[in-house]
Each structure stands twice: as structure tokens, then as C-alpha cells.
């Protein structure tokens, strides 16, 4: 007899509402506040990453054709590191007891994750949410179906499902989730969807953590180690998911005189990394789907841009591959200079003097990350002072994400709020102010009837003037 395929239950507003009731009851039991529960869940998450690394690598290969090194290092290893840190610091982060500030969990939180790093950006914020003692619902991206399915399976096997759930699906399921009243929503993705998430959250006055993106610039000065700089730019562009990374270098700014040297160095290093035919390289991720392939093709084929390609441009539609592509002096009003690229295309925009690049950056929206390559101390200081970005690095790219003592987040259109390390715990915690007092030393001065003497004494107390207090107590005027 043939097997009967089990029908998937429909996840709609009614199902989402019922799930929320169950999670509220479970959270209300106080189970998540237990140090033991939080520690056990973090250890389970770490064990899951260790036990099922090859399953994860295979899922990422299926979704993105992501090389094993990128999957193992940039997703699994970073997840393990975040778990290990949270476990190590949990007692310190908790800091409960007779304190002036007592951290408490927000409640039931929703994490909506993206497709480009579908493991790390699903579970990294959840580490902070669990460490803080919250119940969590994860909505992974349907654009990475293999990883989404694997996450649902693994979380079901390794985690406490009375308080940690995964909801798979697309727009309908996400809409049903957003109709519920959450205690916080964490969304990683694009600004368009970020606005939808924020609008839905506003109906319930739900706080949001939005990790968006933007056009991340890299300013390249002269008199630097050009080979090292070029390799680090490539590492932060093509060796990170083939440019499909929110902090990838989106465009380069350099002087007209220096551009030819930079271009030659980029071409040489790209060939050494990916060979003469990069479309055949197994170290280059593919474009996630046909829609994004068409979007990137549209950027390249715009009339005012197509003639500016100086390297690459080859495409393989059948396998969703686009070669590393460099463009020089594209017009500022072109699509490629006004939309986040999120792919393997890299425009180089030239200026007369390097300081002019700061005006170009500031004329656009604030990026999630900004990079500068220089040995000039004054230029470094000017860059840090005048450029507003979620984060920045001098003489490298993207590695600030791996520094757990730094917050990761955007500013204005590139996002709001931050996480990573201790900041993940803080992102999902309410810092409750608590003051403990006894019954001795009750001061009549605070109670009616109010007199001029009481007013004088209270003003002196509020100003912190010891002399004023003494004067008020003995009835003297300071004058």
C-alpha cells in the first residue's frame, strides 16, 4: 500500500492566538526565570550545534550553495561561541538579589530571521532571549527552506517546546504572528519588511529590535598595504555569501588617481581566489533564488550602468550564479548606487580628494557598517567623528560582528537596537529599578503641612548643598 502523506496543519490567526495563550501560561509559571532552566536550554542549543553540524552545513549548501568553510565558521562556530559565552557569563548577567537594578525577562518574544545566514541569525538572538528568561517563537525564512525545516526539527528535538517554538511558513504565517501581542519583536531583513513589522508592533506598543541593512561604504586611501586591503575587501564582499550579507561592502570610494591601482589589485586577487572562471568555483555561493537573480541583473543591465563593467559580469541563470563584478564610476543617480545591492556587484565611485568621500556617504542614508582603509591618523579621526553608521572598522571589513564586547546594530534606516554578547541579554531584558528602605529615619519635612522652612530645607537637600542644609536646619538664611 502507498503511504499517505500527512497534511500540514494550517497556521492562521486562530492558531497563532492559541499558541500565544499556551506560551503565556508556560511563561507565567515562572519556569524561564530559573537559572537552571536557562542554563539547560543554552547547553541544549550548544549540543545541537555540535551534534548536527554536518546536517546544518548540508542545509546551507542546499539553500545557498554556501561553501563548507563559510557555513562552519561564519554560522556554526559563531553560534557555538555565542552559546559558550552566554553559559559562562549567565550568573554575572543575571545579577539578581538585593540590587538597585534587577533584570527581568520581557515575556514572550518573536524572532523573525533572514535567509542569508539562516542558522546564525535565527539562533543568535534566541541565545540572548533564553539567557534573559523569555519564551521564544522563531519564524525562519521560507526563502531558505532546507535550513528552516532543519531548524524546526532540531528545536523540536533539543529544546523545551513548552516555551520555545518554531513556526514555518511565508507571508500568511508571518502576518498571523504579527497580529499577536508580543513583548518584543526581533526582525532581521530589509527596510521594506522592517516597516511592516514596526507598524504591526505599534498597534500593541511592542518594542522592536530591527536589524536592517543599507549601502555599506568602504573608503580606500592611498599609501596603504594594497594587497592586504584588497584581500580584506574581497573577504567582506564575495567570501561572505557572495555579497549577500547585510554588512558586506556595498560600494568603494577612492580617488581618481588611485582607482586604477585598486582595480588591478582587485582583479588579481579575485582571480587567485576564484580562478579564471569564477562561475565554476565551489567557493562562491549562488544567488538565493530567481527573484534576486533578476533583481541583480536589472541593476547590471540599466543603460547608464552596463557600460561601466570593468571586470566580471558573467552570469549563469540556470545555476543562479553571478561572477564577482566590478564597476567603475557608475552615475550616482543609478539604481545600483541607490539600492542596497546584496549581491556580488561592487561599484567603485571616485572623488577628487579622499575627504570628499565623507560627503558622499553622508548624503545618503546611514549604513549598517562603514569601512576605512588608511594609515592617516587624522583621516581615521575624521571618519569616526563625521560618519554615522551602525558600526565601523578601520583597515578591515565585517569582523566586528565576531567581537562579542561590541554591540551590533544599525542606526535610523539601517536599524534600531543592538545585540551580541552581553548586549543580547540586555536586548531582551527589562532593567527594573528597585530601592530597598527600612522604617527608621522617617523625615517629617516631606509631609504636609508645607512651611517655608520645609521648602528651604528640601531645596537644600535637592541641590546637595551641605551648608544649605545646615542653614535651613538652624533657621539661618544663606544670604
From TrEMBL:
Span of domain Aldehyde dehydrogenase: 7-434
Membrane-spanning segments:
456-476
The cross-references to InterPro entries, in alphabetical order and at most eight, read:
Ald_DH/histidinol_DH (IPR016161), Ald_DH_C (IPR016163), Ald_DH_CS_CYS (IPR016160), Ald_DH_N (IPR016162), Aldehyde_DH_dom (IPR015590), Aldehyde_DH_NAD(P) (IPR012394)
| Reaction(s) catalysed (UniProt annotation) | an aldehyde + NAD(+) + H2O = a carboxylate + NADH + 2 H(+)
Query: Which family does the similarity line name?
Result: Belongs to the aldehyde dehydrogenase family.
Coiled-coil blocks:
none
- Could you tell me what this protein is called? Aldehyde dehydrogenase
Task: Give the annotated active site.
Answer: 211, 246
Q: Does the keyword Acetylation apply?
A: no
